[in-house]
Amino acid sequence: MPSTRYTRIEITQEAYMGLEAEAVLQGKTLKKLASDLILKSISAKALKFVQQSSKSFSGDEADGQDEAHEIGGHRSRISENAEAIQQIKDLWSQIPRPSQREIAKIINYPASSTKYQIKNMLERGELEE
After folding, report:
1. How many angstroms separate the CA atoms of 108 and 121, rounded?
2. N or C: which end of the chain has fewer CB within 10 A?
3. Structure confidence at residue 40 as a pLDDT band (50, 70, 90)
4. Cα separation of 98 and 72, whole Å?
5. Is residue 94, in this structure, part of any structural domain at all?
6. pTM for the full model?
């Protein structure tokens, strides 16, 4: 899977200040707002190219998993994905238990998010150590 980090771009000071102000008004991060604004502003032809390119980066198997927990083109939070939560519980109960990193790969979420969710589930007593 390709990295979600890309080359940095430079913008004018005025554009940056406007982006910051708009991000505060909309309650979004700079990254999220800038991405939304760019994707809303590009041509339909460019957007189609981007969508086709992103599909080619993920295999057929991964496509089904991504679609299973995407809402409006954006991945749902792991805590809001009942299927992912159940998968964590099922995998956690296996003997031998997969590592937290392995669980993250299986449910197709970042390891950091998965580890955080597992920690919270342990604290709430939903999982046993």
Report:
1. 18
2. C
3. confident
4. 31
5. yes
6. 0.46
Which tokens hold the place of 7? 């080359």
Q: What's residue 74's pLDDT?
A: 59
Domain that holds residue 117: 76-129
- Report the 10 Å Cβ neighbour count for 37: 13
Domains of the chain: total = 1
What token pair was written down for 17?
A: 């200040």
Q: Is the peptide bond before 96 cis (omega within 30 degrees of 0)?
A: yes
Instruction: Output phi, psi for 24, to 5 deg.
Output: -65, -45
pLDDT at 62 over 50: no
State the Cα–Cα distance between residues 98 and 37, nearest whole angstrom.
40
- Does residue 14 fall inside a structural domain? no
Q: What is the tens place of the pLDDT at every residue in 75-107?
A: 788 988 999 999 999 999 998 999 999 999 999
Residue 47 lies in a domain: no
